[in-house]
Automatic annotation (TrEMBL):
SMART domains the UniProt entry points to: AAA (SM00382)
Taxonomic superkingdom: Bacteria
Domain (ABC transporter) ranges: 8-231
Cited Pfam families: AAA_21, AAA_23
Membrane protein topology class: Peripheral membrane protein
The entry's keywords: ATP-binding, Cell membrane, Ion transport, Iron, Iron transport, Membrane, Nucleotide-binding, Transport
Protein name, UniProt field: AAA family ATPase
CDD domains: ABC_ATPase
Compartment(s) where it occurs, according to its Swiss-Prot or TrEMBL record: Cell membrane
Keyword Aminoacyl-tRNA synthetase included in the entry's annotation: no
Database matches in InterPro entries: AAA+_ATPase (IPR003593), ABC_transporter-like_ATP-bd (IPR003439), ATPase_AAA_core (IPR003959), P-loop_NTPase (IPR027417), Rad50/SbcC_AAA (IPR038729), Siderophore_ABC-ATPase (IPR051535)
Length: 241
């Protein structure tokens, strides 16, 4: 792995009551250790996972709407401003600049940009325009053909387009890339399947950001309970007040 930690330069923050410092997890953030090849960010909607991932992407130099360093300023989707990025310090050993920031919500615009600039028959994307592949196929093409070693990948909800079977395929891709010990992933996810990747560090975002075991995540607990007790859970959920 390459990125060892990220630290919020708290001493430079003027006002913790304004966004993004007002988000509880960011408010309490100090130094986050990233000492595993695969790190997951998990937590409720709105808990700050994308905000932090985007800020890290910004500091690495990736387009904050998604892409790599080559795509910075190269395509014209509105890149969200990462106010937080300016307040993060990343510690590297060694520093890498290759990689990719996958953002499900702006992937369509990224695909259009690749259509415009492609010169090698979409070699890095399975030989076909990303627009001529289904949403899930285009994600997998990117993972299978563009992801390489000596790089850092930030993935924001990669499961958004993937069937459970294809999420398993992604686990296999992570495993194959990890074998060389020369790659790093930070992944924000809601998927109990992806979270199951072995030896990953899982950070849960609630009031603070803290490490949890796989079985302790509410994502795994709720999914497991639902699958085992579907009728009982639905009955409880739909009960008249
Ligand atoms: N530009 C903005 N101005 C003010 N608040 C914002 C802005 N963008 C996001 N927020 C708020 O910041 C909080 C964190 O959002 P973020 O997208 O990081 O959450 P998340 O954990 O990634 O959620 P999800 O799991 O739904 O993707 C949310 O409460 C959101 O409403």
């Amino acid at each position: 792995m390459f990125l060892k930690s990220c630290r919020l330069k708290r001493e430079e923050v003027q006002d913790f009551s304004v966004y993004p410092f007002s988000i509880p997890t960011i408010h309490h953030l100090d130094t986050l250790s990233l000492n595993q090849t695969v790190t997951f960010f998990v937590g409720e909607n709105g808990s700050g996972k994308s905000t932090l991932l985007e800020a890290i992407a910004d500091q690495i130099g990736f387009h904050t709407a998604g892409g790599s360093r080559q795509n910075v300023r190269a395509y014209n989707v509105h890149a969200s401003e990462s106010h937080l990025g300016d307040y993060l310090r990343l510690s590297w050993m060694p520093k890498v600049t290759d990689g990719f920031f996958l953002r499900a919500e702006t992937f369509y615009q990224f695909a259009s940009h690749i259509d415009e600039v492609d010169e090698d028959g979409f070699k890095s994307y399975g030989g076909k325009s990303l627009h001529h592949q289904s949403h899930g196929e285009s994600f997998l093409s990117l993972f299978q053909h563009r992801f390489r070693e000596k790089a850092i990948y930030l993935l924001d909800e990669p499961e958004a387009a993937l069937s459970p079977a294809k999420q398993l395929t992604l686990l296999r891709i992570l495993h194959d890339l990890e074998k060389e010990q020369n790659v790093q992933f930070i992944i924000a996810t809601h998927s109990p399947i992806l979270l199951g990747y072995p030896n990953a560090k899982i950070y849960e975002f609630d009031e603070t950001i803290h490490e949890v075991a796989y079985e302790e995540t509410s994502h795994v607990q709720i999914s497991t309970y639902f699958l085992r007790n579907r009728e009982k859970m639905l009955e409880e959920l739909f009960k008249e007040q």
